Amino acid sequence: MQRDRTALLWTLMLGVFLGAVDLNLISPGLTAIARAAGVTVGNGAWLVTLYGIIYAVGLPIAGALGDRLGRRHVFVAGAAAFGVGSLLAGFGSTFALLLVARGVQALGAAALIPLATAEIGASFQPTRRGAMLGIMGAVYGLAAVVAPPIGGVLVAYAGWHWLFLSTAPLALAVVVLALLSFPAATERRQVSVDVLGAILAAAAVASLLFGFELVHLGNLPLGVASLVFGVLLLPNLGLWERGANGSIFGALELRGGMGFVYALGLLSAAGMVIALFVPLYAVRALHASEVQSGVALLPMAVAAAVTSWLGGRLTDRTGPGSVLAAGFLLLAAGAYAVPAIGGTQGLGVGLLLLGGGVGLTMGAPLQYLVLGLAPKGQASSAVAMLGTFRALGTAAGPVLYASFLPAFGHLFEAAAGVGLIGLLATALVWRRQLRPNPV
After folding, report:
1. Is 184 helix (H, G, I), strand (E, B) or coil?
2. Full-prediction pTM beyond 0.85?
3. Nearest to 8, CA basis, from 167, 144, 87, 122
4. Element of type H or E holding 334
5. Are the C-beta atoms of 59 and 110 separated by less than 8 Å?
6. Which one of 159, 183, 207 terminates a domain?
């Protein structure tokens, strides 16, 4: 039994690594890809943006399918789809085909990461659940650290096609390992699939993410129109889901405890994305080179990976509440330290604290809570919805922070405010005596 769980853990780790590494792997090659495809670098960036939007849209659908058809089937299908997308992109010759391939990859990744988390909740004892989730968070953080340098080496010595082809063997390995190590799909349930609900959910999430991206890029008219359309879709989605047979969200209840947890997920992601402005701050305020500005983020990424692992173990020992509170406090302190101390010293101290906060808030505690609060048979959907709210926070954060530029001091103070709001929200959650179900 222990050997089986060890094999399963390695399978889940490789699946999470595969889904996470591709988020940043192609960034160093965007210029080369755009040149080869005959488009501008700005248009080439849509290979990253489209991936993020389709990934967020695919999360609730993949989670619902995992609960209905069995996590084993959907996890294997996700890895296979990712591999197909990698091959399509690697051998693609047109920009349109690259966009389609990235969409296929994103759908595959949407099945890998939340279903791996849900399987942790099903296959490991509650007393070890936090530690296992912490390991998954550390793997995710490791992928974020190693992806850009690996991508740079591949572009320089093998060509941009290998940014995609290199992940195809990993996808095949995940498929084989999952077929060998995943528990039999005994939880499969024959229920109708809410197709209209899935379409409404996808349209609402895509419209909101697309709108945030356009506003961030400076296209206010189209961006605001997309945001308004997404907001108008939400009540219609809620009304439909209330009476739908086989709702895409299953039996999830957004009011009460679960809604608070999802709000914390949104805040944690919004706090994390202050990192996007660090290279700009290093170049303009500290007069660093572009290479130095990119390297500056490494301490934050390493700190996040380490504290994600430690946070998982602490969650098992002290519960998720204290770990979350510490994480939001570190986020606020790190963001405030950058302008308060100033210079390279302030940036170094601030990034270490920020990384620690990111590891604690984006790692095990919230996932632990979601798994404990999810209705029976709805773990995959619950975890996927957490990912969707985090994607919304990741998209909304840059729009919020950009409004405080060009004053970098106010920018980091705004990020500190997000951390303090998260700390207050965590306290409110525990005043409601929110406790996950340990079973």
Report:
1. coil
2. no
3. 122
4. helix 320-341
5. yes
6. 183
